Amino acid sequence: MTQFEFNYKLISLKDNLSYFANLLTSNEEDAKDLVQDTFVKALTHREQFQPDTNLKAWAYTIMKNTFINNYRRNVRANTIVDTTDDLYYMNNTSISEAESAESRINTKDILQRIAQLEENHRKPFEMLTNGFKYKEIAEALDLSIGTVKSRIFFTRKKLMEELKDLEYAN
Question: How many other β-carbons are positioned within 10 Å of the β-carbon of residue 111?
Answer without folding.
Answer: 10
